[in-house]
Design a protein that fits this description.
There is one protein chain. 37% of the residues lie in helices and 19% in strands. By secondary structure, the chain is α+β, with helices and mostly antiparallel strands. The chain has two domains: 147 residues, DD-peptidase/beta-lactamase superfamily (Beta-lactamase); 126 residues, 3-Layer(aba) Sandwich (Beta-lactamase). The strands form four sheets. It has a five-stranded antiparallel beta sheet. A two-stranded antiparallel ribbon has the order 3-6.
Length: 273
């Protein structure tokens, strides 16, 4: 798509990765798609996938209640750290320390409100190593989930989760095709992602009749969005937009850029233009 590449070229000093897979035709759009980046909260989708896998094989129940607490161990040295409520896009769980919540609701909060606290609680239950192993079992390369959120000691040592737009689109394609855990589980994951409350990027400029199941992520100078777009009357397409270098104090620039790219791709997919 020449129009897309020209648009991306305007953003000097920014890195923009695009990966699209059309489930109707099998065609792909790849621009800087192999670049590895900090995945920010898009890593919460693999966590959800492992939650569903463990539920499928009977290792947990969605109705199981987990204690809500805010004390976690760094993977560097086992020292304790707490999440900062101010840095979390969902504040509700912090008012419920000492109570319990179901795995089903924690999973929902992790995806639709991007709750860091829910994510870390779930990762303690299922194990970060199992999240990473499931990615390998699915053949999703260039994606690594090795720790939870806000482990600042690990971050300073560059011990981080990582992903690319291409690997994220591969992940979303497998979910869209019903190949993660089972068709039923994949469909349930899509339903969770339909509830996404942060819609400034991939869905922002699309027609209202287009349904989007997606997960955003941003931290520092990284702003991402990955998901599945369902245009009316045709098979869906998987899309991932990863960016680096937009100013931290003006996230609207990154969101607007991704929204414009998403609109271009939607037009290409639905009208061939």
């Amino acid at each position: 798509m020449m129009q897309l590449e020209k648009f991306i070229d305007r953003f000097d000093g920014r890195t923009i990765s695009v990966a699209v897979h059309d489930l109707k035709t099998g065609e792909q759009i790849l621009v800087n798609a192999k670049l590895m980046m900090h995945p920010a909260s898009t890593m919460k989708v693999p966590v959800m996938m492992e939650v569903f896998r463990q539920a499928e094989v009977g290792l947990l129940s969605f109705d199981e209640r987990l204690s809500v607490y805010n004390s976690f161990k760094s993977i560097v040295d086992g020292s304790e750290f707490a999440l900062e409520e101010a840095d979390d896009s969902d504040k509700t769980l912090y008012m419920r320390i000492g109570e319990t919540e179901t795995i089903r609701e924690l999973n929902r909060l992790m995806i639709v409100r991007s709750s860091n606290l829910a994510t870390n609680l779930l990762m303690e239950r299922i194990g970060a190593a199992r999240v990473n192993a499931f990615l390998s079992e699915l053949g999703i390369n260039d994606m690594s989930v090795i720790r939870g959120l806000e482990d600042k000691k690990a971050y300073r040592l560059n011990i981080n989760n990582s992903a690319s737009a291409r690997s994220s689109t591969h992940m979303m394609r497998l979910i869209a095709e019903g190949r993660v855990v089972s068709k039923r589980a994949s469909d349930e994951m899509i339903q969770v992602m339909f509830g996404q409350e942060f819609n400034e990027s991939i869905p922002a400029l699309l027609p209202a009749e287009a349904k989007v199941a997606h997960k955003t992520g941003w931290t520092g100078e990284f702003y991402h969005d990955t998901g599945i777009v369902f245009p009316p009357g045709r098979k869906p397409y998987a899309i991932s937009l990863f960016t680096q270098g937009f100013p931290e104090n003006d996230e609207t620039q990154a969101h607007d850029c991704m929204a414009q790219i998403s609109k271009m791709i939607y037009s290409a997919m639905t009208t061939g233009q």
